[in-house]
Write a structure and sequence with these properties.
heterodimer, A: alpha/beta, 41% helix, 15% strand, B: alpha/beta, Rossmann fold, FAD/NAD(P)-binding domain, 5-stranded parallel β-sheet, 22% strand
Chain lengths: 153, 729
């Protein structure tokens, strides 16, 4: 895992693949943690796009699958630490579902490292930076999603 | 209640009808987007799920959505890291965007006027502001949207500062692309936003303060003075907290007891304060305006006069005479005196306790019954078989004033605390120098009872320590109380020299720096250096303090009679337990997290729960009292308003899709869902007042029958599509 803020700016241009990563995060912990990373000017790669929900419990497994079906190279779900959920236990329920997603991905031959659930609290700005840096590095290593290639055939 | 429900259902059906026509093109679009070969069997219900609830899209959305996008420069905060022109040009090509503009400070008055004018001139149906974060300015722009004549919930924010320009400062191309995507995502949701109406609910005219240290007492007194019934919950036997253990207070050298005791008496006397000592918060349900809190009244073994009267013992109950104390055969160390004085199993921990009621420590009580006999047949205050009681109260707002505990300084082994007798902590020093303490105010060495003539004070003992053993933060009041300690030994013991080993003296408050000068003039010695090691002379029990004088640049080995460690402070385990009951987050160091560090330091992310005193972060007494008054004022607002507005993010059941399995009912942490019979079938029904809008039911429902307001499945699907499928025109 490279340290946050310590990554090269990738080469961009027509024809050069950039990872498309969908992030779905909870309002109270991870979204707030991401804001804190901003306040602390913690630098990380810009490839993750965030959709905010109130709680990771809201995240239907199908949202994750929809993102992959739409061509996402990776999906990140992030919420509160266990025991810290603003709605008591939404993150436990989400985590259970997300394990199911991982199993499903394995069974259809999609590398389950493309999908990750993390736990970043509202006070962990630096951790958010580290998580994003690592997620982007992982997806860059895995390359474009095979689903996109399949679709383009 | 029934009438209200009826109204709600009729409204819902009315809003659905005219939209059946509109659902058709929506369906087509979704079909187009659901090829996904791998996830085919799963994708089909997803598409259905996305399409069907679109029926419910509000009637006020005439024709196609017309979204206005407003891009904020935030000075150079945003504009400095991305190409605003490019973002603006790209935004114009996003479907449903009818208007795009940018401005230097969108949140300013002229910025908000730009929004209002654009809404009028372009007949916009929704507003997207690309700026900082909804956690900062969503309320601001919702108000602006409302002032422009739209429903305030027809607003969506694209975060292009906190999660973009500030974190991709050196990647102009990357941040510009990310901003465009963020706006696409926001517009996609904005196009599907509905009118929502926050619900007002009447509030209980009562408040609760948890923790009765100086912060909790001040908050409770303020609330009571404002005419609000206040429950003050304290886990200990007496109110007063840490401050009641202190001898003097800096920089005025007021006697701590002298200024605190009158307040304690006021709390005990106040008609509006219901004091519950030896009690803990057990369970919390409900929401701002209507918290249901269950309090565990720990078995005290002794009845108050009130409790005795309720049991028919007229004129009975504890009057604090102490007859029981004399006969109790069990001896234990007194925690209030940091273990330096004995107490009995039935005890009060110091003479000024409020309320003056004895308490039995059932962990050490042998139930010999001697106290029962001593108490006598008239008072009959003691009940050795007493059990914990659970009391339920309804309150509107809650203030957490949970305080702190001393960092276990023995973890810093190099200083020998708990290994060397003459190394003591600052709290032990407070008790030793206090006239009501175990030695009657005579400072003595624990090893031989002699008066120390050279005392070393080690500052930052465990604070400002990033080695992993101590605490990285500054505990904020140790410098000042160590100066006070130095003054006290000079004053009380003629010829005694205090040596202060410090990193920096942080005397930042009103009259604090002047106090520092005064102590310097009084003859205290200051040695700037972090203490590396303390070694005991086994014969004399004197201590060698080893450090480096960084001002003189030479090593020091100072022999002193006694060492006082100015120990760091930390949140207690109990703080952590209690915060979880109220859904309050904590920062990395465990202190409770405020809603905003500058603009809302007393609030939390749980509406109706406020913070007072040290539990939010280290504070000295003046700051603690100020924060308590702030919290009391904030907590009294909803009570004086008489009602609170709840965010309308609650779940609704799409009854025609509901299979009535009830899987969602078990998932709901707030018991807001129930199965009911309707038109001959079983469907789920939401109690809106109980629903807090987490959406856990909506994330699970296999039939897609739950409509999670403001975070609906079509909205979220549209957001995902907007990013991944693009959709530029």
């Amino acid at each position: 895992m490279s340290a946050p803020g310590n990554f090269p700016i990738p080469e961009r241009g027509p024809g050069i693949w950039q990872p498309k990563i969908q992030g779905i995060v909870c309002n109270w912990c991870s979204y707030a943690g991401a804001d804190l990373a901003g306040g602390g000017r913690i630098q990380y790669p810009p490839d993750v796009r965030i959709v905010r929900v109130m709680c990771t419990g809201r995240i239907d497994a199908l949202f994750v699958l929809k993102a992959f079906a739409d061509g996402a190279d990776g999906v990140l779900v992030s919420g509160c630490h266990f025991g810290d959920c603003h709605y008591l236990e939404g993150n436990y329920k989400a985590a259970k579902r997300m394990f199911m997603v991982k199993r499903l991905m394995k069974s259809i031959g999609l590398d389950d490292r493309r999908f990750r659930m993390t736990f970043v609290s509202a006070s962990e700005g630096a951790k958010w930076g580290a998580v994003i840096t690592d997620v982007v590095a992982t997806i860059r290593e895995l390359g474009p999603s095979p689903l996109t290639e399949f679709k383009n055939k | 209640m029934m009438a209200e429900k009826k109204k709600a259902t009729t409204k819902k059906t009315a809003s659905k009808k005219p939209d059946t026509k509109k659902a058709a093109p929506m369906k087509q679009e979704v079909k187009k987007q659901a090829p996904a070969p791998a996830a085919k069997p799963k994708a089909a219900p997803a598409a259905e799920k996305a399409a069907a609830p679109a029926k419910a899209v509000s009637t006020t959305q005439q024709g196609d959505a017309r979204v206005g996008v407003f891009i904020c420069h935030c000075g150079t905060n945003i504009a400095g890291s991305m190409d605003i022109e490019a973002v603006q040009e790209a935004s114009k090509r996003i479907p449903n965007v009818a208007f795009v503009d940018n401005y230097k400070y969108m949140c300013s008055m002229p910025g908000q006027t730009v929004i209002q004018k654009a809404v009028h001139d372009n007949k916009l149906t929704a507003v997207v502001v690309a700026a900082c974060t909804p956690r900062l300015h969503e309320p601001t722009f919702r108000t602006a949207t409302k002032d422009a004549g739209l429903n305030p919930f027809r607003f969506e924010m694209a975060n292009i500062r906190d999660q973009n320009s500030w974190v991709h400062m050196h990647d102009r191309v990357g941040s510009t692309e990310k901003a465009i995507d963020a706006i696409k995502i926001a517009v996609a949701k904005a196009a599907l936003l509905q009118d929502l109406h926050p619900k007002s609910v009447p509030v209980e005219k009562a408040a609760m303060v948890v923790g009765a240290g100086v912060a909790g007492m001040q908050a409770a007194l303020d609330l009571a003075a404002a005419g609000i019934k206040t429950y003050l919950i304290e886990k200990d036997m007496s109110i007063g907290g840490r401050m009641s253990q202190l001898d003097k207070t800096f920089p005025t050298l007021d006697c701590s007891q002298c200024i605190l005791t009158p307040k304690m008496v006021d709390v005990g006397r106040s008609e509006n304060i219901e004091l519950m000592t030896w009690s803990e918060v057990h369970e919390v349900e409900g929401y701002i305006g209507n918290f249901d809190v269950t309090i565990r009244k720990k078995a005290r073994g002794v009845m108050t006069p009130k409790e005795a009267e309720a049991k028919g013992i007229v004129g009975g109950g504890c009057n604090g005479c102490g007859d029981c104390d004399g006969v109790c055969p069990v001896i234990k160390p007194n925690e209030f005196e940091v273990g330096m004085k004995p107490r009995k199993a039935i005890y009060i921990n110091h003479p000024q306790v409020v309320p003056l009621i004895y308490t039995i420590d059932f962990d050490s009580c042998v139930k010999c019954g001697l106290c029962v006999t001593a108490c006598g047949p008239e008072k009959r205050a003691i009940d050795l078989e007493m059990k914990d009681e659970f009391v339920k109260v309804k309150v509107d707002t809650v203030i957490l004033a949970l305080g702190y505990e001393i960092f276990p300084i023995e973890k810093k082994e190099e200083w020998g605390y708990k290994r060397y007798e003459n190394v003591i902590s600052s709290l032990e020093f407070e008790r030793l120098i206090c006239a009501s303490g175990p030695t009657g105010g005579h400072l003595v060495r624990p090893s031989d009872g002699k008066t120390p003539m050279k005392i070393g004070f080690v500052l930052c003992a465990g604070s400002r320590d990033n080695t992993g053993t101590g605490k990285p933060y500054c505990s904020r009041f140790c410098c000042m109380y160590s100066l006070k300690h130095a003054h006290q030994v000079i004053e009380k013991i003629p010829g005694c020299i205090p040596y202060l080993f410090y990193m920096d003296i942080r005397s930042f408050g009103k009259m604090y720096e002047e106090f520092y000068y005064r102590i310097q003039d009084e003859g205290a010695k200051f040695i700037r250096g972090r203490v590396a090691n303390i070694i005991e002379d086994p014969k004399t029990k004197n201590l060698h303090v080893m450090t480096d004088d960084t001002l003189l640049d030479r090593p020091i080995d100072m022999e002193v009679d006694m060492v006082v460690l100015a120990a760091a402070i930390q949140p207690s385990d109990d703080t952590n337990r209690t915060r979880k009951l109220f859904g309050v987050s904590c920062s990395m160091d465990g202190w409770l997290l405020e809603a905003h560090p500058k603009l809302n330091p007393c609030g939390t992310t749980t509406a109706g729960v406020f913070l007072a005193g040290v539990c939010q972060g280290p504070k000295d007494i003046p700051d603690t009292v100020a924060s308590a008054e702030g919290a009391a004022s904030a907590a009294s607002i909803p009570i004086h308003m008489g009602e609170v507005e709840l965010e309308p993010y609650f779940a609704q059941c799409i009854e025609e899709k509901c299979a009535g399995w009830g899987m969602c009912v078990n998932l709901c942490p707030y018991s807001a869902l129930a199965l009911v019979e309707k038109d001959g079938r079983t469907v789920m029904q939401v109690t809106e007042a109980k629903c807090k809008g987490c959406g856990t039911c909506g994330g699970f429902c296999p039939g897609g029958a739950i409509w999670m307001q403001h975070f609906t499945t079509p909205q979220i699907c549209a957001q995902i599509d907007a990013f991944l499928l693009g959709g530029e025109q």
